[in-house]
Amino acid sequence: MDVLGLYRKTGALLEGHFLLRSGLHSPLFLQSAALLQHPLYAEAVGEALGRLFEEEGVDFVVGPALGGVVLSFVVARALGARALFAEKTPSGEMTLRKGLTVNPGDRFLAVEDVVTTGESVRKAIRAAEERGGVLVGVGTIVDRSGGKVAFGVPFKALARLEVPQYPPEACPLCRAGLPLEEV
Ligand SMILES: O=P(O)(O)OC[C@H]1O[C@H](OP(=O)(O)OP(=O)(O)O)[C@H](O)[C@@H]1O
Ligand SMILES: O=C(O)c1cc(=O)[nH]c(=O)[nH]1
Ligand SMILES: [Mg+2]
């Protein structure tokens, strides 16, 4: 599946000077919501990502809100699993909503639209593990971590991107005076 082609076609591949969740700056931003707003594309992405984990016996899928909500749903649908999401808490961690049940030993797949440092999906993983889930894999549409991220289980991506990302103090785009965009 030509995932980056889909990002481009839906106007979800942005070029400029962006502030990332981690505080890093980058000339490229993938606005997954612009891609996933199209149910047919979302479904195709979910099927492609789900296929990579069909041997894992997944009971539920979990993704960090907001980006991970639609993705969790479409991947879970493809796998015949339940679709959960983790939401941000005021302290900056993530939690599963009270009414969402995890049975002890439930095997789960964590999904994320874009992985840069992996911190967001890690928080969702912790939230599901705290409820008794057992992580069996991590899937992402785009891995832009540069191979620096590992979860101790298979980590699979539909696309891997080598993109520059800079700490603010070493950002050449800042030095060039390009306004910083927060998407
Ligand atoms: O790997 P990381 O360094 O954590 O960065 C990637 C995360 O950043 C974005 O979420 P963000 O929290 O910005 O927004 P969202 O609420 O739209 O998902 C994206 O959806 C990933 O969850
Ligand atoms: O690192 C991020 O925050 C990030 C990068 C990206 O390309 N897209 C996104 O939604 N978040
Ligand atoms: Mg997110």
Question: What this model shows, in words?
Answer:
The protein has 183 residues and is of the alpha/beta class. 30% of the residues lie in helices and 29% in strands. It has one domain: Rossmann fold, CATH 3.40.50.2020. It contains 6 helices and 8 strands; from the N terminus they run αββααβαβββαββα. Helix 3 packs across helix 4. The site of magnesium ion has 4 residues, from helix 4. Pfam families: Pribosyltran.
**What is the helix tally?**
6
Strand content: 25-35%
CATH class call: Alpha Beta
Distinct small-molecule ligands in the complex: 1-O-pyrophosphono-5-O-phosphono-alpha-D-ribofuranose, orotic acid, magnesium ion
Domains (count):
1
Q: What is the rounded distance between the termini?
A: 26 Å
Supply the CATH architecture.
3-Layer(aba) Sandwich
Low-confidence parts: none
- Assign the structural class, choosing from mainly alpha, mainly beta, alpha/beta, alpha+beta, or little secondary structure: alpha/beta
Rg over CA atoms, rounded to whole Å, is: 16 Å
**Element-by-element helix/strand order:** HEEHHEHEEEHEEH
**What is the CATH topology descriptor?**
Rossmann fold
Which sequence of strands runs across the widest sheet? 5-4-3-6-7-8
